[in-house]
Amino acid sequence: MTPMDTQDKIKQQVTGNPVVLYMKGTPQFPQCGFSQLAVQALNACGVTSFFSVNVLENPDIRQGIKEYANWPTIPQLYVKGEFVGGSDIVKEMYQSGELQKLLEGVKQQA
Predict the structure, then answer these.
(1) pLDDT in tens, 7-29
(2) Radius of gyration of the chain (CA)
(3) For 97-107, what is the mean pLDDT?
(4) Lowest CB count within 10 Å: 40, 49, 69, 90, which one?
(5) What is the rounded CA–CA span in Å between residue 57 and residue 16?
(6) Cα-based distances in Å from 84 to 2, 89, 92
(7) How far apart are the first and last CA of the chain?
(8) C-beta of residue 21 within 8 angstroms of C-beta of residue 99
(9) What per-residue confidence (pLDDT) applies to 107?
(10) Does the pLDDT of residue 108 top 60, yes or no?
(11) Which sign does the torsion angle of CA 15, 18, 22, 27 carry?
(12) Tens-digit pLDDT profile for residues 56-100
């Protein structure tokens, strides 16, 4: 896959789904604590069904998503096509109530 194909695929995933989480592992079996934290935050907000991408299965996506958002770490959360942040930001937003507000409109669609 060329870098451009990878970017196109990422853009389709991000814009084609209300909630997208690029993570290590799967929502059922996260492969790192940061990914697990992001899944738990989404679940706590009532978002139990979302589009997830296991970056460990695809090195092109794993590298490409870092370039797409200009963000060096995984996990990465996208809501309605917009980059929200990594696990620290997701955690802070959850604790402040911002994440719940952001996800209110997408719970029904997910």
Answers:
(1) 999 999 999 999 999 999 999 99
(2) 13
(3) 89
(4) 49
(5) 20
(6) 26, 8, 11
(7) 29
(8) no
(9) 62
(10) no
(11) negative
(12) 999 999 999 999 999 999 999 999 999 999 999 999 999 999 999
Q: What number of other Cβ atoms are within 10 A of residue 103's Cβ?
A: 25
Read off the tokens for 108: 């029904």
The length of the chain, given as a count of residues: 110
| pLDDT at site 109 | 47
- Tokens standing for residue 46: 């009532």
- Dist CA 48 CA 75 (whole Å): 17
Tell me, letter by letter, the H, E, C secondary structure of 50-87. Answer: CEEEEHHHCHHHHHHHHHHHCCCCCCEEEECCEEEECH
d(CA 27, CA 40): 9
CATH code for the part of the protein at 1-11+18-77: 3.40.30.10
C-alpha 10: how far from its chain's center? Answer: 11
Encoded tokens for 95: 């604790």
Q: What single letter denotes the amino acid at residue 35?
A: S
